[in-house]
Amino acid sequence: MDASTSPLDRYRIAAEPFYQPVDNEVSVFEAAWQHRLPVMLKGPTGCGKTRFVEHMAWKLGRPLVTVAAHEDMTAADLAGRFLLGPEGTMWQDGPLTLAVRHGGICYLDEIVEARQDTTVVIHPLTDARRVLPLEKRGELIHAHPDFQLVISYNPGYQSAVKDLKESTKQRFIALDFDYPEPVLEAGIVAREAGTDTELAGLLVTIAGCTRRLRGQGLDEGASTRMLIHTGRLVAGGVPLEMAVRAGIILPITDDADVRETLGAAISACLP
Amino acid sequence: MTLPTASLPTLNLAAPAPSAATPFGDELRRQMHGRALLRASFEETWQALRRRYEPAALEPWATGVLELAKVNAGPGCLLAFWRASVTLGRRLPPDALGAAGLGAAGLAAANVCRAAGAPAALAVIEAFERIAERLDAEAQRRWWTMMTATAQGAPDEIALFAGHMPTLLARGSLAEVEAFATAGRRAAGRDRARRRAFFALEDPLSRRLLARMGAGPGFAELEVGLRRLLAALWGDRPGFPPSLQPLPVPEIGDAPRRANIAGPVIRLPEVFSGVTGAASHALYRAASAHAGAHLAYGGPRFTLGKVKPVQMACINLIEDARIETLAMARFPGLRRLWAPFHVTAPSAEPLAALLLARIARALFDPGYQDPDALIAKARALFAERSDRLDDPALSFDIGTRLANDLGQRRIRFDARGHVVEPAYRDDGLGLWDFGEENAERTEEVELAVDAARIERREEENAPQPPEAAPQPEPTGRARPAPADERGRIVARYPEWDAQAGLERADWTTLREVEPALGDPRTLARALERAGPLRARIARLVRAAKVGRAVRLKRQVEGHALDLDAAIEAAVSRRVGETPDERVFTASALRQRDLAVLVLLDTSESTRERLPDGASVLDIEKLAVAMLAEAMAGLGDEMALAAFASAGRDDVRYIHVKRFTERYSEDGAARLAGLQSGLSTRLGAALRHAGEEIAGVRAFRKLILVLTDGEPSDIDVDRPSDLVADARRVVLGLRARGIDTFGVTLDPGGVGSGAAIFGTTNTMPVRRIDDLPMRLSELYFRLARR
Ligand SMILES: Nc1ncnc2c1ncn2[C@@H]1O[C@H](COP(=O)(O)OP(=O)(O)OP(=O)(O)O)[C@@H](O)[C@H]1O
Ligand SMILES: [Mg+2]
To answer: Where in the sequence is the domain holding B193, given as residue range(s)?
Structure first.
């Protein structure tokens, strides 16, 4: 395929996105890519799922089409629809169709947010058939050999109402993401926020306190993303305690008692 | 607060007409001059007071004395009152106690005499003389109010209570003593022996309350936060967060209590005596973190073997230093938490306890200087092993060696009286395995005996407030009893006593009352009249049905274009077909899984009439009827209940509509039949409502309470206690996944709604006429979440 004319060109990632491997996720993903197997990234918010896909897309030299799923998303939002033009109707490919046709990685972020009847459009794409039927157009697209589907999914949010269908789940290779080991995470925070490793380490210790409160007053612990934001505040000159308050304590809970306890635990972390 | 009621003495008609200026003073002098026994003392008192006060200013005082004479308080009381008047008048500045204050005291003492007799009044007057200096004028008035109330509630015990007054007020604030008196009257009820024991400070409850005075916030208030703190610090370790339990406070005069670790349980004193406010908070945190560090970094328990008490104490000390050092390596800020408690300093006194505290400080605080060789040795030994701090055996080794040195110096160690310092540290008993087979040996170790004492006391005190008979059934389970006119007893529920800081088991009795049937047509007519409102609610019902994001495509009307349908329609038109006009999207109700219980307060305050003649209860009924219609329209699970109370033994609960039945004519008749009356013991009713809704299977459970937001009951002096109790129930229900919302009829906007339900879960209704609309709106808002 002539890359210079592909409509996916604007989805190409030019520079290497920094990604710190945590486990063997890179090699597993590469193996899945070899066979174009669909991949599901599971893990809490802000732990590097999006960054990982970007990195892999860059590494494999494929364009990356990202779709953030939401409740109102319909199959047409993924596959495409007719638009009215001066000359009559014209078809416009949806993001999924683009990737299928021209061979890119399609990343469906937070797939559980979409309704189940939307999610089923990916079924024929993610089994041996690798096809996408566009009923409206009466077209059956055979996926480009370089097409791959990646979805992400945060098991923490899932409730009885929001979960993936069994038949959807079982089509994917799954990679489990979590916040990396403290040393690795500190390295990531230091690099992304531009702080020294000592401060980054401290932020990671603090994050540990919040993560242990999951289910004990907090729904989720502080994410790597939160630590990076807080680190940036400090690097920008905000005093540490103030930054921790603004970057972690206040966003993470509205409960005054929990905030107070969190304050005490965080104070125990600070030198 | 008002003065105890006492009418002015009626004057003896036979007496000479008093002069206009000082009628009571004149009358008093006339009467006293007629009593040989009292004449001289009276004159002396009168002269002394006259030197301080103008005759006119002495009028209230004279009134008080006349009243005392009138209730036959007897010469003893009068003499005591006069003596108190002179000494206090001399000792206190007039703004703290003037002649008017003395007069008020006399009137109040007369009331005590009326309620409990002359000896009681004498005791109270004498107590007043001893404590008046501690109280300002306003506090003195409160004190007399408390004494009068206690004299009425506990006439045989008021003298005992008065006798202990100096002790009580030395320990606690007036407010705490007031709470103590109330708790005593309440807890003992009609049980005279119990009441006597309570006010004699011999009852376990009164000892506990006394020990808690002048301390707090305590375990009950801080527990949740402490548990979270431990989870935040070490929650990833096995056994975390540990269970936290309260230790009953030691009685007055006993050694202060320390935290105690028992296996996976951390036990903390109910309060740390004499520690209040932020300091108490800090001490609890320090103690929890220390105990948590033991659980996180401790090894298996040491075997007691032949270890002597002094060795044990030293080993504990080193183990404390070891686990704290490890904890601070990970959480350096813990040093800030613990440091303020290490305050001991070098001293020449050869006391083991002091030396131990100094070693503790030396191992904690590198900057601490102490010339004693033992301190240097402890530091050196500990430093030697600093690379192997993971090994608890080092505590055993170093501790044993230090104990030997203490022994060689012939420093006596008082095992029985030993209290671990600093105060945040645990008693160390949890580190030891006393061994079953070693029972005899265990008894030799006095510390162990101490431990046993803790267990025993807890058995006496902890499991239940003593007044509660042991209940085989779990709390709140129905224990059917024959119905009387007040209804069938179906459950007993605990109640939170905010003043005592404890939960009283089986404190309230809940009765289910057969509903009276009213005329459903009155309600139907009211609904008719409220036509426009009803239409609005009907619209809300429709909105709720579409409020959930299930998209309906190809609708005739809707909030957005259905793009695909629109395009198809456009295509059809171009090719000359008749286009399908259904080109909109709408949303429809996603499957709802909601159960709602509406709890209706029918207490006396709902009898109030509005200008149009309807009572508050009428509007409540209308509001509920509308809501019931709406809910039936949505197919939500729904129940209606009403409550009122007449004391803790009589909390009434009426099922207007149960979850299991349909809302029909019958339900409407029962709703129409509700009558206003009695009081509002909200907590008990909420507990029962919670039981009712807990049995329903639903994803989301709501209790909507319709109340004036002011819990009260005939046997409760301080409504704030019932507010605190209701708050506790609301929190408990939330923990069980049941949300409680208050719609409070609160025209003034001053009610306790927010204090009970929380600000976001309260909807104060200022205009009662708005109630039906607001109630339904609230429901729809909640149902959408
Ligand atoms: N392993 C990693 N290597 C490099 N950066 C990382 C890594 N993990 C997290 N980050 C940083 O954390 C930030 C948040 O990660 P990312 O946006 O990928 O989270 P996510 O898992 O996709 O979260 P969400 O589920 O909320 O979308 C990234 O911008 C990146 O800076
Ligand atoms: Mg992401």
So the answer is: 3-212
